[in-house]
Amino acid sequence: MPFVPFDEYFPEIAAREIRTSTVPPGDPLGLPAGEYGFLELYCNDRKCDCRRVVFCVIAKNGMSVQAFIGWGWEDVEFYRRWLRGGSLDEAIEAKGPALNIGSPRTSIGPALVELVRNALLTDPAYVERIKRHYAMVREKVDKPQEPAKRRRKKKP
Asked: What is the C-alpha to C-alpha distance for residues 151 and 23, in angstroms, rounded to an integer?
């Protein structure tokens, strides 16, 4: 299940609608002060309808990746079915928000998960934007590909 940046399909919209969060000094979660950008990654597998986003969290001061956080907006039972009989723990992990398994991690990853949970995902307009972006990507991915036109050889 490959996840690709939203801006691969919609660069202008991604640039305009990127979510950022400014963390002040003395943050109760223990995050270093600074600005964090949340780049959206979506699945581009034509056979998948996971209804998830992976946030690639960038610390803007050094433009370094701090975490990959997965989140799905459907209920846990949806993810249990999507995992084809996966365990309850696996379904909860798939729903998230949770650090993405197998992705690079930093010491502030768990605090970033809490930032996503308590700030980003409590904003109904932002949640609807994520769902809209997902639908836009799915439309591009699922659209039947037109066969390449064959060039006719000119007769001499």
From this structure: 57
By CB neighbour count within 10 A (0-12 exposed, 13-18 middle, 19+ buried), where does 37 fall?
middle
Cβ-contact 98, 69 below 8 angstroms: yes
Residues 6+ apart with CB under 8 A from 137: 4, 6, 9, 42, 43, 44
Token pair of 48 as six digits: 């998948």
> pLDDT per residue over 98-132, tens digit each?
999 888 889 999 999 999 999 999 999 999 999 99
Q: Which residues, given as ranges, of the chain have pLDDT below 70?
A: 1, 145-156
- Please tell me what DSSP assigns to residue 6: G
Instruction: Report helix, strand and coil shares of the chain as percent, to nearest 5.
Output: 35, 25, 40
Residue 38 β-bridge partners: 19, 57
Give the span between the Cα atoms of 125 and 133, in whole angstroms: 12
Q: Which amino acid is at 116?
A: V
